[in-house]
Amino acid sequence: MLASQRHRIILETLHEAGAVRTAALAEQLNVTEETVRKDLLKLENSGKLKRAHGGAVLEVSLDRELDYQEREGQQIKEKARIAKRALRLIEPRSSIFLDASSTVLALARLLEDRELTVITHAQKVVSQLSHLADVKVIQLGGNLDRRSLSFTGPATIDSLRRYKIDQFFFSCRGLHETRGLSEASESQAALKYALFEQAEQVVLLADHTKFGLSSSYFFGQADDLDVVVTDQMPPEPYQRTLSPAELVLAN
User: Fold this and answer.
1) From CA 245, how far away is CA 203, in angstroms rounded?
2) Is the CB of residue 118 less than 8 Å from the CB of residue 111?
3) CB 3.0–4.6 Å: which of 21, 23, 30, 78 could bond 231 by disulfide?
4) Pairing mode of beta strands 217-220, 180-183
């Protein structure tokens, strides 16, 4: 198979799945992993993808905060599976914090027939839960972040400290092996840092495309996490990095 044919197949697979793994591509293309790595390097140099540990993801600017419509359109099936699995972690009558990520919004959509207190800074989460009589919803105020449709800033963090939080469910822009968790927005990163300090249990919901990526503002390390819910087994270096946390696969 010619290199140009392999490149076309790699890009088609990447656009369908959002991320590709070197080993899976080698098997699909019937070539060695070294050949795939060279192909990925060429495609990265041409700006068509970004290499990550164990594979590659679509090339995006991770330093720009995506608006809600952009985020909701990415990895839809993976987010739904992750949300369904994360739902099983929530105890009745507990107090949980839901962030403004699209993966956590998928979880909010499943909170039917549950007696809960939900604290959030996300307008979309509030809207999603507004019709549920058994769910007490507390929305934090602050400065409106129009891209994420959520409130952030010092006032948000100050009001957060009034509440007991059993579990904090969140996602992020990326999880780097050594530098940790990051966000494109400084105010979102600051809020999540504060929640790490306050929540009894910290639960990351992250699809496979998040591993190996990093953005502008770092707010925590893998050992700050209690549970990680993802759709695929992370690359081996991340399995070691995440070993202090409970790793839950949404199969």
Assistant:
1) 9
2) yes
3) 78
4) antiparallel
Classify 142 in phi/psi space as left (phi over 0), alpha (psi -120 to 50) or beta: left
CB 204 within 8 A of CB 225: yes
CA distance 92 to 116: 6
Per-residue pLDDT tens over the stretch 183-242: 989 999 999 999 999 999 999 999 988 888 888 899 999 999 999 999 999 888 889 999
Domains in the chain (CATH in brackets) are 3-58 (1.10.10.10), 68-249 (3.40.50.1360)
C-alpha to C-alpha distance for 12 and 97, rounded to whole angstroms: 37
pTM for this model (two decimals): 0.76
Phi, psi of 43 (to 5 degrees): -70, -35
Round to whole Å and give the CA distance between 116 and 151: 21
